[in-house]
Write a structure and sequence with these properties.
Helices cover about 35% and strands about 20% of the residues. By secondary structure, the chain is α/β, with parallel strands linked by helices. It folds into two domains: about 5-215 and about 335-425, Aminopeptidase (3-Layer(aba) Sandwich), CATH 3.40.630; about 215-335, Alpha-Beta Plaits, CATH 3.30.70. The strands form two sheets. Strands 1, 2, 3, 4, 5, 6, 11, 12 and 13 form a nine-stranded mixed beta sheet that branches. Strands 8-9-7-10 form a four-stranded antiparallel beta sheet, covered by helices on one side. Strand 1 (about 60) and strand 2 form a beta hairpin. The protein is elongated, with a radius of gyration of 23 Å.
């Protein structure tokens, strides 16, 4: 059976213009910043909803806070082939991380509409809520919820102004009271396109990375407690400085991560990327520090060793300091994910048919596709980004690079629709 995508084209100019329109929705003085749950994020969502509807999609925000645009298929009982990513950013993030996948999915739906082709499956374009690490201590909020992995305790996490996550989800259009741990059962397949956030594709002159797996991500919160005192009148030997203990732990975390990275048995990295210091004044001895560790590995044993090492170091260093570790808790712990072999094959075939140069590769970054793989055959592709830069204003991919990724999505969606619908005949 011929692939109908061979008669369709992605409108690269329209795709690029939509991306640049989203880039313009940013905090003043902070290029490309739309933090999840913020006013600019909500403004960006409103713009996406508008262009989704203009493309003929029926839109809604589900209970988990995901924006969904749906193009109905001939046989809706078959379920939906979903294409998704996210529109939120890290601070001073970038124009492409996440949102390029959402807009590319929209362009796939437009190409189908413009060509008058109605697939058997419905198509859903999903802008997942808060894929980036949010100010509520958790990432992938929307995709976790959709697959039944947003635990009730997570809804009680607190963010800015002591707001509960459940209230923040309501504020952006979700309905936390309807969130359950029952996953959606009507998604037939899920695809995601994303910039690589690394240099493999660019360095090797490749167009597409077909992603085989995503490392597991564990986020650990450490609460260090000392005693705030006057910085000028408190003798050094009488201080209970929470930051001094936190700094020792930070160096130990780096040392343990280096050791595990060099050991055989898989990938490992860890970063202490978040510090909150109280009272955070130059003339006050720090009385409390909250720090968050991001650890990533494809080896569960390494993850367990790392957590125990940090717990041991916390006790050891506390005996050397008048401060102490009040609590160590795992905020989230996602296992590594292997993508579906058949979905990988479809993406590889689409890339090959388009004459694109590709490679199969793992992802060291987390993505919504990892959670969708819990409920449906899933896979994703990478497109190059300049010098591997991401999570920064310099993040950049060209119109042709993004367009090539959208072409692969379009071809793969049509092939997946044919394969899965033929099995249901």
């Amino acid at each position: 059976m011929n692939n109908p995508a061979s008669n369709m084209v992605i409108n690269r100019d329209r795709l690029w213009n939509d991306l640049m329109d989203m880039a313009d929705i940013t905090e003043e003085g902070r290029p490309y910043t739309r933090r999840s749950f913020s006013e600019k994020f909500i403004e960006g969502r409103a713009h996406l909803d508008k262009i989704f509807k203009a493309a003929g999609l029926k839109t809604r925000i589900d209970e988990n806070g995901n924006l969904i645009g749906r193009l109905e298929g001939r046989r809706p009982e078959l379920g939906a082939i979903a294409i998704g990513s996210h529109s939120d950013t890290v601070p001073d993030g970038g124009r492409f991380d996440g949102v390029a996948g959402v807009i590319s999915g929209l362009e796939v739906a437009r190409a189908l509409q413009n060509s008058g082709i109605e697939l058997a499956h419905s198509i859903e374009i999903i802008d997942c809520l808060a894929e980036e690490m949010s100010e509520y201590g958790i990432s992938c909020v929307g995709s976790r919820g959709l697959v039944g992995e947003l635990e009730p305790s997570m809804l009680e996490y607190r963010g800015p102004n002591d707001e509960l996550l459940r209230n923040a989800i309501d504020r952006v259009g979700g309905a936390f009271c309807d969130i359950t741990q029952h996953p959606r059962t009507d998604i037939a397949a899920f695809l995601e396109m994303h910039i690589e956030q690394g240099r493999v594709l660019e360095d090797q002159g490749l167009d597409i990375g077909v992603v085989t797996d995503v490392v597991g991500i564990t986020r650990i919160e450490i609460d260090v407690v000392g005693q705030p005192d006057h910085a000028g009148t408190t003798p050094m030997h009488m201080r209970s400085d929470a930051l001094s203990l936190a700094a020792m732990l930070c160096l130990e975390i780096e040392a343990q991560a280096q050791r595990l990275a060099e050991a055989e048995g898989g990938y490992f990295v860890a970063t202490t990327g978040e510090f909150n210091i109280e009272p955070n004044a130059a003339n006050v001895v720090p009385g409390r520090v909250r720090m968050v560790i991001d650890a990533r590995t494809d080896n569960a044993d390494k993850r367990a060793v790392f957590i125990e090492a940090i717990k041991g170091a916390s006790k050891e260093f506390a005996t050397m300091s008048k401060a102490h570790v009040a609590e160590i808790r795992v905020l989230s712990d996602a296992a590594s994910t292997k993508f579906d072999n058949q979905m990988i094959a479809h993406l590889q075939a689409a890339s090959d048919d388009l004459g694109l140069k590709s490679i199969k590769m793992p992802s060291g970054a987390g993505h919504d596709a990892a959670f969708f793989s819990y409920i449906a055959p899933s896979a994703m592709i990478f497109v190059p980004c300049r010098e591997g830069r991401s999570h920064c204003p310099e993040e950049y991919s060209t119109s042709d690079q993004i367009g090539a990724g959208a072409d692969v999505l379009l071809n793969a969606v049509c092939a997946i629709d044919q394969e899965l619908s033929s099995k249901k005949n």
